[in-house]
Amino acid sequence: MDSILVRGGGELRGTIPIAGAKNACLTLMPATLLTEEPLTLTNAPRLSDIRTMTQLLQSLGAEVASLQGGKVLSMSSWRIDNHTADYDIVRKMRASILVLGPMLARDGHAVVSLPGGCAIGARPVDLHLKALEAMGAELDLRDGYVHARAPGGRLRGAVVEFPFVSVGATENALLAASLAKGTTVLKNAAREPEIVDLVHCLRRMGAQIEGEGTETITIQGVDRLGGATHPVVTDRIELGTYMLAPAICGGEVECLGGRLDLVGAFAEKLDEAGISVTETETGLKVARKNGRVKAVNVTTEPFPGFPTDLQAQMMALLCTAEGTSVLEEKIFENRFMHAPELIRMGARIDVHGGHATVTGVEKLRGAPVMATDLRASVSLILAGLAAEGETVVSRVYHLDRGYEHVEEKLGACGAQIERIAG
Ligand code: UD1
């Protein structure tokens, strides 16, 4: 297993190109299952999660070609010849559940393994299933699989009111409803930019959808969808992560392709902490103003609130802030597993339930640490860049799920970072 060695202490200066969003790409790819015509995604990120989704789609009979070094995904599902998403692939990645809605909508039946447990809490898929049931699906849960059928071979439009906001359930429902018979109204829908991106793509394919980016999305089902070419939206989590690099280390970095509307609540917190963020013609420029970062309180919320996927990285910043910060995690239980690792580097963090109190220290110290999940792993790299001495982050396969070329991107700005093959 590879690890990443970081030598901390230096300022960062330069530019970092931001890739297409992993989470958008993972929901756009299953849209190929809705049509016999080709669907091409440009600006795709080069990540292991994307390769896992490629394998899953191929196992169902889709043709998926990775072009231009992986930046373009050309997909074609002229027919689905296997309607079972196997546990061996699904267990690697929860987003696999997103093939359920499209297969069911197109062919009236699908069998998908239930995703297993996950390092950041229980994460059930009940809301996905309830939405599909509301559209008429008959579901049978046995042997760890969801066996789904649409009576008469077709889902029908319905009013679906989510009890709380779920990105994945909104996506599954959107994918399914676009081919259902009649009108579907999604209430309390997620408003994330990845949802808006999915709707833009579905619209290019011929879907009739209104209200994306608001709490109520209305889908007028159509009989068939066609092919399209669609650019994947910028990854706001990769963007926020690299915005934190100069914030933690000092210096100035421009994140190419960055947009404030993707990271509004996060940028506000950076400003409060004493980090300057300015829009340029090509992206977002981030610099630490004079002196130490100031403590700020952060609560994670669905978009447009502060994203849970930036909580771990923000904690790395606050470890060296002046004063005491409280981070409240409202989306996932048990998402503070990076805290004990940061403590190994000299951080002062007290986790109590869904809250973490961080009392800033002058300096972190390098240490061997272990990545526990995707965002935790990158938070440890950021902390290592700011620490005195060497930090070795092990189990970086988590990192490779969500960040392409981390060493090159940070290295180009002067960071001392290298991968150790293991
Ligand atoms: C997506 C993102 C993930 C991000 C999360 C929240 C992808 C591939 N992943 O995950 O990176 O951290 O949004 O922004 O896009 N829940 C249920 N039942 C369900 C579904 C969700 O109880 O059927 C709960 C979850 O356990 C969690 C909350 O709802 O507590 C929100 O989860 P959700 O928005 O669905 O996250 P994902 O779509 O899994």
TrEMBL record:
Subcellular locations according to the entry: Cytoplasm
Q: Which residues carry this modification: 2-(S-cysteinyl)pyruvic acid O-phosphothioketal?
A: C118
Q: Where is the active site?
A: C118
- Residues noted as binding UDP-N-acetyl-alpha-D-glucosamine in the record, renumbered to the chain: R94, R123, P124, V125, D126, L127, D309, I331
Which terms does the record give in the GO molecular function aspect? UDP-N-acetylglucosamine 1-carboxyvinyltransferase activity
**InterPro entries reported in the protein's UniProt record:** Enolpyruvate_Tfrase_dom (IPR001986), Enolpyruvate_Tfrase_sf (IPR036968), MurA_subfamily (IPR050068), RNA3'P_cycl/enolpyr_Trfase_a/b (IPR013792), UDP_GlcNAc_COvinyl_MurA (IPR005750)
Residues annotated as coiled-coil are none
Q: Which pathway does UniProt place it in?
A: Cell wall biogenesis; peptidoglycan biosynthesis
According to the UniProt entry, what is the EC number of this protein? 2.5.1.7
CDD domains in UniProt: UdpNAET
Which parts of the sequence belong to the Enolpyruvate transferase domain? 6-410
Could you tell me which Gene3D superfamilies the record lists for this protein? Enolpyruvate transferase domain
Catalyses: phosphoenolpyruvate + UDP-N-acetyl-alpha-D-glucosamine = UDP-N-acetyl-3-O-(1-carboxyvinyl)-alpha-D-glucosamine + phosphate
Keywords associated with the record = Cell cycle, Cell division, Cell shape, Cell wall biogenesis/degradation, Cytoplasm, Peptidoglycan synthesis, Pyruvate, Transferase
- Chain residues that bind phosphoenolpyruvate: K22, N23
User: Would you kindly state one Gene Ontology biological process term found in this protein's UniProt entry?
Assistant: cell division
Q: Which Pfam families match?
A: EPSP_synthase (PF00275)
Q: What is its main location?
A: cytoplasm
One GO term of the cellular component aspect? Answer: cytoplasm
Source taxon at top rank: Bacteria
Q: Which NCBIfam families match?
A: murA, PRK09369.1
- Which family is it part of? Belongs to the EPSP synthase family. MurA subfamily.
Q: What does this protein do?
A: Cell wall formation. Adds enolpyruvyl to UDP-N-acetylglucosamine.
**Name of the protein:** UDP-N-acetylglucosamine 1-carboxyvinyltransferase
In its UniProt entry, the species of origin is given as: Gemmobacter caeni
